[in-house]
Design goal:
Largest sheet: 11 strands, antiparallel
Number of domains: 3
Number of helices: 6
Structural class: mainly beta
CATH topology of the largest domain: Immunoglobulin-like
Mean pLDDT: 88
Distance between the termini: 54 Å
Radius of gyration: 24 Å
Strand content: 35-45%
CATH class of the largest domain: Mainly Beta
Number of strands: 23
Shape: elongated
Low-confidence stretches: 290-304
Length: 380
């Protein structure tokens, strides 16, 4: 696109990029902005890293331009001098655009090779390495983002940003799993301060609204003093009606090494159980369970490979636990000699494994049983 701009500038053609809501949040570590200032910061970051010369237009936070242009993630428009749309394309195609412009205004004198421009590239903003105390959750394959509204009070940014996705069954049938994820925004160059305490999330529910299996969620705390990995929760909910609202309060400590400060923060959100068409789709997030019945069938057959299982303890008897996994199936977990148990990054005694406790199990599947090598207590 930059090469086409350079060639057609002499023809009086003006080019613009339009910043809309991120189509794929979390790609390269970037998360969906909450304010216009953060969108503008994303544009500055793109110009700095890519070296672009085409000016940017930034959509307001109500995404009016995105909606007016048809909600396509990578669309392309040619607009005539009279302001009317001459041509539109659902997906940007530079070669087709060059041919369209040659037909409309004539061929330019030059034909710039994009390689000559020495443009930069977007790279990951932070390490993807996650502390071993933070398990990679196995997520349902049909997650849908719902509306999350931060309470923007005062001048303090939301250094960590909340994204909430639900199984389609939650919106269709009122019951299922909710995935809540807190990710540090790379714009602010901060990290979690694990010395102060773990990241916590509290759900405030109306009396006649949705019912969660737990309302106070505490993330595991890595042993290292600081890290930048996401804090994630997977929890069941029932009695949801589309459009229901709940409040979420997040407690965390963040530090900036560049500016030399640490802050203990309390920030609040409203979660609306309605599909958010502007939230984009996360790709490359890791373990996903495409179909619930397939996952249960494969687990029953046994793969003999190391994997992770999460669920709530139904019964604890001797060295065998019965847990209800994320698919709703009851599974046996056998504790091997030397199985280590952790809670908030510290070793925990076996008597903490009680009915109702949510755990993450690292181990191996064998003929329908899970042989545990390490247990993490996620919530009591």
């Amino acid at each position: 696109m930059e090469a086409i701009r350079q060639d057609f500038a002499s023809k009086g053609v003006r080019f613009y990029y339009v910043y809309k809501a991120l189509a794929h949040p979390e790609l390269h570590g970037y998360v969906q902005p909450y304010t216009l200032e953060e969108r503008l910061a994303h544009v500055r970051e793109a110009v700095r890293r890519l070296g672009t010369r085409i000016p940017w237009l930034v959509d307001p936070m109500d995404n009016r331009l995105k909606h007016a242009f048809g909600d396509q993630p990578n669309s392309e428009f040619i607009i005539g001098p009279d302001g009317k749309v001459v041509l539109k394309r659902a997906w940007c195609d530079p070669q087709a655009l060059r041919e369209d412009l040659e037909r409309l205004v004539g061929a330019p004198e030059s034909h710039t090779d994009p390689a000559e421009l020495n443009l930069g590239a977007i790279r990951d903003t932070a390490t993807r390495r996650r502390p071993e105390e933070l398990p990679q959750l196995e997520l349902p394959g049909d997650l849908t983002p719902v509306v999350v509204k931060p309470h923007l009070v005062g001048e303090e940014p939301f250094y960590a940003k909340l994204r909430v996705e639900v199984e389609r069954a939650v919106l269709n049938d009122g019951e299922g799993q909710v995935f809540l994820a807190l990710r540090l925004d790379p714009l602010y160059h901060v990290h979690w301060n694990n010395l102060v305490g773990p990241v916590r999330l509290k759900l405030l529910l109306p009396d006649d609204g949705p019912v969660f299996e737990a309302t106070e969620l505490t993330a595991l705390r890595p042993q290292q003093e600081s890290d930048g990995a996401p804090r994630e929760f997977l929890i069941r909910v029932r009695k949801v009606n589309e459009g229901d609202r709940i409040e979420a309060v997040v407690y965390y400590a963040a530090c900036s090494d560049e500016e030399g400060w640490c802050k203990i923060l309390t920030q609040r959100y409203t979660i609306v159980f309605r599909r958010d068409k502007d939230a984009g789709r996360v790709i490359g997030r890791g373990r996903r369970r495409p179909e619930r019945n397939v996952a249960v069938r494969e687990a029953a057959r046994g793969s003999g490979r190391r994997s992770v299982l999460t669920g709530a303890i139904v019964e604890a008897r001797g060295n065998v636990l019965r847990i209800r996994d994320s698919a709703g199936a009851t599974r046996s977990v056998r504790l091997l000699p030397g199985t280590r148990i952790f809670r908030s990054g510290r070793a925990a005694p076996r008597d903490r494994l009680k009915q109702g406790t949510r755990i993450g199990v690292f181990g191996q599947e064998r003929n329908g049983e899970f042989w545990a090598m390490r247990l993490l207590i996620l919530h009591e």
